[in-house]
Amino acid sequence: MKRFIYIITSVCFIAACESEPLTLYDFYQRDIEDVTKIEIIDGSTGDKKVVNDKQIIDDLLYQIKEIKFIPDENQEDRTGYLYNVSLFQGNETYSFSSNQINDTYYFTEPNIEPILQDFYKNFKE
């Protein structure tokens, strides 16, 4: 039994170490060009901004499309985020935060947080 646990643990560790960085386009399972609305929530205040202008949406997506999401070695539960982003396409919604997508924590290269922070602070609804 100990050997079985060791093998499973080793396989999981190797798989985690070999994870390739992914972009938002890798996570988003639809055509990201068809996003019609974005909501951004400031995690420190809970305030929300909604973007419906297609040009502004495309500009933000262009800024973050090449950012690499790299799994954080520390996957312990944590609370909070700097920004949470929701992408809307018809009735479909896809959400991620500046440090988490689905149930996995990430760091980004380059850092996505200053981009989201600048966008949030400068966007006027």
- Mean pLDDT comes to 88
Q: What is the CA-based Rg, rounded?
A: 17 Å
Percentage of residues in DSSP E strands: 25-35%
User: What is the terminal separation in angstroms?
Assistant: 59 Å
Tell me the structural class: alpha+beta
Number of helices: 4
Coarse shape: globular
Structure, described:
With 125 residues, the chain is α+β, with helices and mostly antiparallel strands. The chain has 4 helices and 7 strands, in the order ααββαβββββα. The chain has helices spanning 2-17, 24-27, 54-64, 112-122; strands spanning 37-42, 48-51, 68-71, 83-89, 92-97, 100-101, 104-109. The strands form 2 sheets. Strands 2-1-4-5 form a 4-stranded antiparallel beta sheet. A hairpin with a 2-residue loop joins strand 6 and strand 7 (104-109). The longest helix is centred in the first third of the chain and has 16 residues, at 2-17. The termini are far apart.
Q: Helices, strands, pairings?
A:
Layout lengths: L1 H16 L6 H4 L9 E6 L5 E4 L2 H11 L3 E4 L11 E7 L2 E6 L2 E2 L2 E6 L2 H11 L3
Antiparallel strand pairs: 1-2, 1-4, 3-7, 4-5, 6-7
Label this structure with key terms.
single chain, 4 helices, 125 residues, four-stranded antiparallel β-sheet, alpha+beta, 28% strand
Give a nutshell description of this structure:
With 125 residues, this protein is of the alpha+beta class. The chain contains 4 helices and 7 strands, in the order ααββαβββββα.
